[in-house]
Specification:
Blueprint (H helix, E strand, L loop, with lengths): L40 H8 L16 H10 L22 H17 L1
């Protein structure tokens, strides 16, 4: 069984950069809807399409592999060459902002109904 709902407080340290989204990555298609930490889906989209360094929340040290794949999926080439980049993979990570926002808004819509 793969663990989800990992908080930054529980994250172990690693100096190894991983190349696939972690089990809890908000940018992966397997993400739990609404599991975004302190940022809204729209705030994440702005960071993803900008030059923000996005660190993995589940492993302290490396950058977020899911964010790197998402950026490749949308054709974002950061000017900052220290930002981690991977090849596009629309099966692992969301293909664009619409998919990402719709997926994470499902949680908000369910919460409003209760």
């Amino acid at each position: 069984m793969t663990r989800q709902c990992i908080t930054s407080d529980e994250a172990p340290y690693s100096n190894i950069q991983h190349g696939r989204p972690c089990t809890d990555c908000p940018f992966a298609r397997t993400a739990l809807s609404g599991w975004l930490g302190d940022n809204s889906a729209e705030e994440w989209v702005a960071m993803l399409h900008g030059e923000a360094r996005i660190d993995c929340h589940a492993i302290i040290g490396p950058q977020c592999a899911g964010a790197a794949i998402y950026r490749a999926n949308v054709g974002k080439l950061p000017r900052d060459k220290t930002l981690f980049m991977l090849l596009a993979d629309r099966k692992l990570a969301f293909a664009g902002p619409g998919e990402f926002v719709r997926h994470h808004e499902k949680h908000e819509k369910r919460m409003k109904k209760t």
